[in-house]
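Most newcomers find our protein records easier to grasp once they have seen one. To make this concrete, we reproduce a full record directly below:

…
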Amino acid sequence: MFVSIVAGLGLLVLAIIDWRAFLTWVGQYNIGGLDANVEFAGPGHLLAIEYLQRNWPLVWLATAGTALLCIRRHGHRGLAVTSAWFVATAVTLAMWSPVWEHYMLFLALPLVAAAGGGLATSGEWVIRTLRGKHSMTWGRAVLAALAFVGAAAFLVDRCRESMPQPEGGPEWAPHQLAAQAFLESAAPPGSFVVADDPLLAFVAGQLVPPRLTGASFKQIRLGYLTADDLVISTLRHEAQAALFATGRLALVQPFERWIAAIATEQRDFGPLRGYRLDLPPSIPHAKDSHLGSGIALEGYSLSSEELQPGNVLTVTLFWRPVRPVTEDYTVFVHLMDEANHLWDQHDGPPLMEAHSTSRWTEGMLLPDPHPILVSPETPPGTYRLSVGMYRWPSLKRLPAFRPDGSRWRNDRLVLTELRLTAPRIEDP
């Protein structure tokens, strides 16, 4: 009772100090369930049954304790409270699906209460019998014996689980071992990698950026860990690999699209996906130009130096903000012929919608990939590849400047010229 009163007063004080934060962290953060497509979660009723089967010594001990409390003169009230507690917990977990397996720990609390009450009752009966103050009936003796046997089984089970693991640590599934080997080969020990399974990264001898060590589904779903945060952590710590292992980071789809676009290699390990990164990135083609007063374009890279109809040309731009950027801009990459006719393009927020310009960190080099699908109808010829930024929805472009300060025509920064050749037709 005292603990309940103190907890209630504590929640009341928190609500008074900052009611918005209270509603967010105590209300919204804890009420929301998991998405139905989250990996490694399951239906609440099935997980509850599996948990009770796996912890049968505790269930046995709690059942014996319940029977002992039933025949105790003053145990009915506590038994009723404990039973209602267990039923309410089980029903809540069954209805709140899917849930994480570790949520089943809440089932253990009323079971432990019932088991403890039964053991206390058994101990009291045994002591009173030994002192000659009470004669124990055969029924009570059997129930007490069952309780003590259950307690012994529970202790043996706990001791078995707490025994040291054999040399080599816990057993990993084959796909986890393959992912571990991939992380080990991706970078020297002690390097940073982006992973939603920090343990697997640590076993591989790598480090995880601090922002990701406590990442959870709820943090991501409620917006406390965004694609912007993930991009900043990846670039700031120069991560050499990314591993999507638990389904958490997969919820941030723009981030994985960006990782996949800048990765030098992608590997699949069953349900796990690994990407090899080259950070800080090298810039194959330098280009010294500016957009507006705060964004520098330091260069670009091309997935191919030639154009082919029907193929995808990925143009990666390397931006570096030299001053704080206060607005969100859209990037355009245009493929135009010599008559300034626009044939193919890619327009969209930078970094595959994973990192808006208003969140850019001053001085950080940002690789920004843009895939352009070259239309099969695009005729052979020479094409200019030009880029820039504009405000949406006004479409007003940011001023584009050359190194000497002169302004690019139409605020369209020309990167290079590319030759589109007709597809080769092999002789039958």
Remarks:
- Residues 189 and 199 are 14 Å apart (CA to CA).
- Confidence is low (pLDDT under 50) at residues 36-40, 165-169.
- The domain at 285-420 is CATH 2.60.40.770 (Immunoglobulin-like).
